[in-house]
Amino acid sequence: MAAETSVGIVSGGEKNDLRAVPLASAGGGWLAFRNLRERWRAFRIARVASPVFQRWAAGFPLTRRIARTNTRALFDLCAGFTYSQVLLACVRLDLFHTLQPGPLATAVVAERFRLAPERAERLLKAAASLDLIGRLPDARWALADLGAALIGNPSVAAMIEHHAMLYADLADPVALLRGEGPPTQLSGYWPYAKAAEPDAAEAGAVAGYSRLMAASQALIAEDVLDAYPLGSHACLMDVGGGEGAFVTAAAARHPGLHLMLFDLPAVAARAEARLGAAGLTVACRGGSFFSDPLPRGADAISLVRIVHDHDDARAAVLLRAAHDALPPGGTLLVAEPMAGTRGAEPIGDAYFGFYLLAMGSGRARTVEELTAMLRDAGFDAIRSVKTRRPLLTRLVVARKRGEV
Fold first, then answer.
1. Residue 121, Cα to own-chain centre: how many angstroms?
2. Taking the chain, what is the end-to-end CA distance rounded to the nearest angstrom?
3. So what's the pLDDT on residue 13?
């Protein structure tokens, strides 16, 4: 693990793909170029895989920095689970809130967490190495930016706790890919993922994930509403709206907007109670968008982190149901993390790829894939709208054909 490698150093910045770039000349020039690229790629891979070359690159001044950067990247991939468990320990012990009033010495932290001083020191050093906290010149420990950001986003802590199930499901990733082994914990946590009749889920089965989604939705909701203000619409229906986090945010932005919410009956009942207690008037309807028509009356429908939860066939049913429920000229908002987002490729393809596999359904899609599905469902004027944090959520807006 300690040996340095120079993976990718002879690529000259070339992307790891096999796409052929056509030459300007006619004929079979592009084939010759592709073959040349593939021969160069084979040569490069052979060099990078060579221990002799790796050792040379780690010492050669012009390649040393790249080699060491790639060594760190490979080690981080291997150690990523350990890093996540350090973060989980910090969350469960409430380290960040403990340090919020001010810096503390190791002995104080150890006493508060009922840890041996050397174990507390080990945790604090690990957290500092991940830039969650920092050590002051007087040896006390203080919050760093990442730790402080977690305090400001309590939903992140809830997601960190939730990921214990995902890590258990990924203990044997090959078995997961082959569909072997017992049912995953995530498929039980999200009862609609593989249920034949998701609308039959009882209140106890939906309580956990409903609370999690309500906690994590606020940040997403504000970004979506910043990107697409709803002031031009008369009525919004949030489909798969959970306990009402998105309609709550919409109500705060647009007090005159009529609001509807559609979700599984047990979830809609929780939303009705929660929204009513908050003094909001929202028409909450229960059902399954796979078997029940969506209520009509809204000129805007939102699907916030919903489409990517479902495989293509079910997602197509959902989009057609939304199309049928809208009036001519009505608008559909699809907001969720999307594959192919520049700078966030691992989030769509690695994280959500395996999370949704463990959950039992769904996949992250590119804007182009969603656009094609929306067009097949009957929508037009489909466009991608910029959001503040595209790695968390992107937004695609579509309109039902026809005039209002």
1. 32
2. 64
3. 44
